[in-house]
Amino acid sequence: MKLVGKYVDKKGEGDIVLVPENTEDMWHIYNLIVEGDYVTCSTIRKVQLESKTGSSNNFRVRTTLTIIVENIDFDTQACVLRIKGKNITENKYVKNGAYHTLDIEQNRKFTLKKSLWDSVNLERIDTACDPTQNSDIAAVVMQEGIAHVCLISSNMTIVRAKIDQVIPRKRKGSASQHEKGLNRFYESIMQGILKHVNFDVVKCIILASPGFVKDQFMNYMIQQAVKSENKLILENKSKFILTHSSSGFKHSLREVLTEPSVISLISDTKAAGEVKILETFYTMLQTDSSRVFYGKNHVLAACNAKAIETLLISDKLFRCQDVALRKEYIHLVETVKKSNGDVKIFSSMHISGEQLDLLTGVAAILRFPMPELEEDGSMEN
């Protein structure tokens, strides 16, 4: 993300001018913009002019508008953020109060104005504008007949291709049909990798499967690359890492990302830190349950006792339309930081964030046991 300008006063009101440069930046922007904010950017507007004779002429013009945000939609596949709201800057093409949709795209400058830039938003701006925060990894989880080609970054896990094919069973006299089916399946995976993985950006490509499916695919891909003289595959052969997964579905990525060989490759990324701390939480939930809690009420009670060592919270909670509830979560984050606790804000578009959302989106690892919280059945979350 490129920071063009930042004009925020002591009260936290002001505007920030940004230019998103990649998919990761678009996700950050989606988390920054909420209902009631003001967004300014250039857009295309369809204009209809009527001549003196009564005939009409339609044409499209580029103009700059400022709207009050009423609705936000993020298309992860097209990587476009569509923001709908009322125009507040009247010009000769658009009336004041007219509804318009602005498309925020990569490499297009826009201005975001808020009545209050809170600490969570300002921290996200700092993170998005820090080039060391991004580290992209590709992963393919597979089993016979099913595979998912995914891109993993600091904040997102996106499925770029799903391969679902029927492979004939291996029976007497039909072994060749089974072999042909497997080859078609492997070819589809290979084409998915070539289409969706940018080898210039990606540090490594994880191939994961139960059994020997990953090994067989790797052998097939190298053989095909040699036959077709595909230099892209051959020159990046060292980037492929083979590891175990329980299935070919996306949820298997969680166990893949906890493999020591994989952790060492992504140890400098935010994603690795999230996966590691979530694994610690699950382990403690089984072995020392009085030191880990999830759900808003339990976590707030632990926060009031200054007991939180690590707060795990989903960015999904900061996008809620309830302003009072959002402020409550921001206050929780700030209070934990003031008491020297560590705060991990999980991306709900990352596999670890999806897991945290299943635990209400907020959890905590405590400095000391609080068995009284376990016994307090009145704290329904």
UniProtKB/TrEMBL annotation:
Principal cellular location given in the protein's record: cytoplasm
Essential cofactor(s): a divalent metal cation
Keyword annotations from UniProtKB, A to Z: Cytoplasm, Metal-binding
GO annotation, cellular component aspect: cytoplasm
Boundaries of every eRF1/Pelota-like N-terminal domain copy: 1-130
Protein localization: Cytoplasm
Top-rank lineage group of the source organism: Eukaryota
GO biological process assignments: nonfunctional rRNA decay; nuclear-transcribed mRNA catabolic process, no-go decay; nuclear-transcribed mRNA catabolic process, non-stop decay; ribosome disassembly; RNA surveillance
GO MF terms, alphabetically ordered: metal ion binding
Biological role: Component of the Pelota-HBS1L complex, a complex that recognizes stalled ribosomes and triggers the No-Go Decay (NGD) pathway. In the Pelota-HBS1L complex, pelo recognizes ribosomes stalled at the 3' end of an mRNA and engages stalled ribosomes by destabilizing mRNA in the mRNA channel.
Homology family: Belongs to the eukaryotic release factor 1 family. Pelota subfamily.
Official protein name in the record: Protein pelota homolog
Organism of derivation: Ceratosolen solmsi marchali
Gene name in the database record: LOC105359707
